[in-house]
């Protein structure tokens, strides 16, 4: 509200003269709005691929040599998952260490078991054993990465923390039962259904870990887990078909060049 500086009469906001005494009213523009300083964005330089490969290789070597707590982590996540998830939640997520120092080593269990079960002591050929072993290894490593991607993509829909590092922790450690159960392929190549039963325990580990690692509300856990599993079943089927086709063509071409 404005008033005449001469007679004190009330003025219209846009008046140039006082209607009561005719005194000119000086126009005072509003103070300019000072633009707020733009927030400076800092970009974390992407680590070169060879550095990532070296980091994963170092993590693999350390785990193989027994310089990590891999065995204890496997035991704890299988026997007392809730307590171990709380420990994991306090750890810094490192993609290369999770893949090279844990997932790759445990994924070798079903891979080597399939190779021996199919190609050495089984009724199949050595070619079948190599093909099965490589397929199992690639499926495990690629599959756990895709599982983490699915978990992270769905996180906002279930009021959970969107953080790929945390999602990868959840995916890697929850996959432990399936990888450990892969050793059963040494004894029979027809017990895939039994191995799948261990997958049910992996689902249980996901359900227990989601509220701790991703901050998922308890009433959202069932839907989160269910949608994650459905998405992963579709992805796993497609991935298995693609890998089998690619590896089959590769080995067929290699054997052809050798004249076998």
Produce a short descriptive summary.
By secondary structure, the protein is mainly alpha-helical. Helix content is 64%, strand content 2%.
Can you lay out the helices and strands and say which pair or pack?
Blueprint (H helix, E strand, L loop, with lengths): L1 E2 L6 E2 L37 H16 L5 H10 L1 H9 L5 H25 L6 H29 L9 H11 L1 H6 L10 H23 L6 H37 L3
Antiparallel strand pairs: 1-2
Helix pairs in contact: 1-4, 2-3, 3-8, 4-5, 4-6, 5-6, 5-9, 6-8, 8-9
Number of strands: 2
> What composes the largest sheet?
2 strands, antiparallel
Unreliable runs, pLDDT <50, ≥5 residues?
35-44, 255-260
Structural class designation: mainly alpha
Quote the distance from N terminus to C terminus: 97 Å
Order of helices and strands: EEHHHHHHHHH
What global shape is seen? elongated
| Radius of gyration using CA atoms only | 31 Å
Strand order within the widest sheet? Answer: 1-2
**Contiguous helical run count:** 9
User: Mean pLDDT across all residues, rounded?
Assistant: 79
How many domain regions? 1
The share of residues in extended strands comes to: under 5%
Helix content: 55-70%
Can you offer a commentary on this structure?
The chain has helices spanning 49-64, 70-79, 81-89, 95-119, 126-154, 164-174, 176-181, 192-214, 221-257, and strands at residues 2-3, 10-11. By secondary structure, it is mainly alpha-helical. The chain has one domain (70-257). It has a two-stranded antiparallel ribbon with strand order 1-2. A hairpin with a 6-residue loop joins strand 1 and strand 2. Helix 6 runs antiparallel to helix 8 (192-214). It is elongated. Residues 35-44 and 255-260 have low confidence and may be disordered.
């Amino acid at each position: 509200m404005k008033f005449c500086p001469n007679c004190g009469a009330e003025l219209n906001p846009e008046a140039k003269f006082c209607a009561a005494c005719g005194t000119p009213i000086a126009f005072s523009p509003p103070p300019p709005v000072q633009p707020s300083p733009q927030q400076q964005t800092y970009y974390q330089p992407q680590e070169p691929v060879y550095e990532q490969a070296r980091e994963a290789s170092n993590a693999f070597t350390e785990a193989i040599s027994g310089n990590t707590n891999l065995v204890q982590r496997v035991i704890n996540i299988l026997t007392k998952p809730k307590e171990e998830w709380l420990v994991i939640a306090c750890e810094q997520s490192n993609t290369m260490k999770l893949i090279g120092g844990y997932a790759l080593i445990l994924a070798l269990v079903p891979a080597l078991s399939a190779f021996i079960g199919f190609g050495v002591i089984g009724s199949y050929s050595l070619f079948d054993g190599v093909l099965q072993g490589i397929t199992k290894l690639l499926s495990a490593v690629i599959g756990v990465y895709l599982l983490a991607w699915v978990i992270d993509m769905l996180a906002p829909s279930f009021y959970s923390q969107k953080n790929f590092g945390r999602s990868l922790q959840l995916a890697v450690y929850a996959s432990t039962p399936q990888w450990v159960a892969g050793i059963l392929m040494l004894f029979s190549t027809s017990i895939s259904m039994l191995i799948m039963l261990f997958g049910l325990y992996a689902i249980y580990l996901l359900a227990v870990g989601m509220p701790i690692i991703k901050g998922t509300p308890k009433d959202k856990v069932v839907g989160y887990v269910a949608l994650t599993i459905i998405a992963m079943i579709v992805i796993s089927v497609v991935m298995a078909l693609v890998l089998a086709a690619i590896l089959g063509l590769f080995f067929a071409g290699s054997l052809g060049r050798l004249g076998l």
